[in-house]
């Protein structure tokens, strides 16, 4: 086979992968940008999966399989194939959605015929069917069980508890605890050292987000391992209670900064023009352009309009 023919085949394969993921690709030089599927065990049959989108949590033990979040359809299909191998061909007993955003629920459709049940908070289930400011999905696997305060189940020898502490990243976020493993999936209640998405259209409030993080820490042990929804590219997607407190203190500092700016008479335009990192939280990086979900804009709205 000629070199040009081999290059054509290789390039076409990469392009096909990018097409499946909804990303453009025209040259072989982009091959290294294809996200790799990675399963990482934590302890006592609980682990996490990374590829593209919010981090997926999983439990595979002799008595059953549980999954937290689903990324996007192509990535979810890759995950399902991998989890079947680890579960010796068994299906998923329960798929739990931490909230409604597409990078955490878009892959639900790939669990059709695989997951026996889909669980979410009642507000998240509502938002999945009727996204605030968006169009309902054409085809989706929606939750068949929605709860208001808490939900629990035993999967094999593991006890899983999902709790809703109130409005935060959205109005429907939940914290999922694998009690015997002492591992907690935070979904998008945790952005590790990066600016979080604040979805005020879906009920977000930074002030109560701080309370949610405080209560989560209070309800779990000092050595609990937390799985985060997202992290700065230089940071891990797992960590401890100190990492939760960094995000909690970031919100406090950001709201205080904006409040001081408003009290000093600065206009909305002047405040939102800030680009440099928040003092004391340089790891989060500079602020981007103002948008409906960026934290600086949302902090201004929360300070001036109330939560």
Would you kindly provide a written description of the structure presented here, covering whatever features stand out?
The chain has 307 residues and is an alpha/beta fold. The chain has helices at residues 3-21, 73-86, 102-105, 122-129, 206-218, 241-263, 268-272, 295-305; strands spanning 38-43, 46-50, 56-61, 64-68, 94-96, 118-121, 145-147, 150-155, 158-163, 175-178, 183-185, 191-192, 225-227, 230-231, 238-239. It folds into 2 domains: 1-34; 35-305, Metallo-beta-lactamase, Chain A (4-Layer Sandwich). The chain is 32% helix and 20% strand. A hairpin with a 2-residue loop joins strand 8 (150-155) and strand 9 (158-163). Residues 1-32 have low confidence and may be disordered.
N-to-C SSE string, H for helix and E for strand: HEEEEHEHEHEEEEEEHEEEHHH
Q: What strand order characterises the main sheet?
A: 1-2-3-4-5-6-7
The count of domains is 2
**CATH architecture grouping of the largest domain:** 4-Layer Sandwich
- Tertiary shape: globular
The CATH topology name of the largest domain reads: Metallo-beta-lactamase, Chain A
Proportion in β-strands:
15-25%
Strand element count: 15
Portion of residues in helices? 25-40%
- Decide which structural class fits the backbone: alpha/beta
Uncertain runs are 1-32
Largest sheet: 7 strands, mixed
What is the average of the pLDDT values?
A: 90
**Could you tell me the radius of gyration in angstroms?**
20 Å
The helix count comes to 8
Which CATH class of the largest domain is shown?
Answer: Alpha Beta
